[in-house]
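Homework-ish question, so no full write-ups if that breaks the rules, but can someone show me the predicted structure for this set?
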Amino acid sequence: MNGIDVREAVTRAHHEEWARVVAALTRRFGDLDIAEEAAGEAFAIAVERWSAEGVPPNPGAWLTTTANRRAIDRIRRENKRDDKHREAQLLYDDDPPGPVGAIDDERLRLIFTCCHPALAMEARVALTLRMVAGLTMPEIARAFLVQESSMGQRITRAKAKIKAARIPYRVPSGEDLPARVSGVLAVLYLVFNEGYLATGPGTDPVRHDLTAEAIRLTRLIRALMPQDGEVAGLLALMLMIEARRTARVSGSGELVTLDEQDRGAWDAALIAEGHQLVRGRLASGVAPGPYQLLAAINAVHTSARDVRDTDWSQVVALYDQLVRLDPSPIIALNRAIAVAELDGPEVALAAVDRLEDKLAGYHAYHATRADLLRRLGHSQKSRAAYDKAIELAGNTAETAYLTRRRDQLR
Amino acid sequence: MQYMVSVIFDGPGLATPEEDAAIDVFNDRLVAEGHWVFAGGLGAPATATVIDNRRGEAMFTDGPFVESKEFLAGFWIIEAADLDVALKLAAEGSKACNRKVEVRPFL
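A: Not a homework solution, just the prediction itself:
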């Protein structure tokens, strides 16, 4: 077997099996540290062994068995064998082991533990990317522009808290589930957005590695919780945004806004999948949550041939629903952008100006004002708003776009 | 597993009669459901005395060891299976005493 095939097989197994191996070991040994280390070792051994002996017929089972042995070796080495029962208690779980679909449930347990609300948001993101997605510490550090050592500390501290405060290794039950699922989705959406609108002067404007990872994890959760409408909504939303990725940044690295994008360059397969998810949710007849509404808005955009063909009254109606669920000023700002297309820039500007106290530090507020003022012919005010937006924007493509727009003002 | 739920004083005045009544109801529940270990309210920081006997000669100092607008006003020690259970109880405790609380596990 040649080296490239083996490397591919290991990479594929890493994508498909990492979370499963870590989850199974965490369940068995009750310790995220042991699970993570043994899983890492098993993949390292796979690289060697599979080159010599060929890829096993069931890579996942091979990896789990190998990781299990490594974990047991470590526990023995540390003379913890007698403490195994105590160790197993460290991550508390009160469900009987081995129900139907237990392996999938273990991955869900892992996700819910990593995204526990008692952990800081940054820790949840880092832990999820390490434990569930299997990204390495340097990869995660690079993704969030922090030092590898501080990312390592963040993860170590989170694991220590999980252990000491006994954050349970369990899928939350009944009444707690919706809030906890939305906590998990918030982590995934944050990862996606950091990839979609990467901040920092030295980074690419779109970090495909992060958007792809967020989509992969959301697909996993969707597979594990197929009945959850918000999970479907978030996946649909991500797919329809991801579909526009290549059209969103020009060859010269400038942001291309929705109205100017080459719609032929959108990924039709991703859009079709997103639309299908949205239709499925509509057919369910269950009142949609925020992610489903955002997905529906994106479905309207991606159904239109061009910006004039867009059903703006539908977009505004969906934003009205969204505002009722989430009265955040950012949603109100996005609603105003749609209102500009339906009722004109003057009405929209009045709505945007009302958001000043809450959004004065947010670049998109100033960029929206600048655009509306430009359309109303108020060049001077528009220029001042562009200046402010450029000062606050962190994304290189967005800065380039805003700068060109400002310099085109007469 | 035991957790300490610290009541953080950051607002005006002592507990009102309504808060006291709500705390009693909450305490009864802790006892009834087997979570109760111990609880108590503390005197104001001005009543504190700091003792340092590390060198074998006890030094007494008037006042709290750290001056702060937020201070420990009381606590519960509860028995809970895991942090999720402890957090739920702490959330109810916070509502009952009408104060912020902090949850920490015992070692």
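Now go work out the reasoning yourself. Hint: The domain at 2-105 of chain B is CATH 3.30.70.1060 (Alpha-Beta Plaits).
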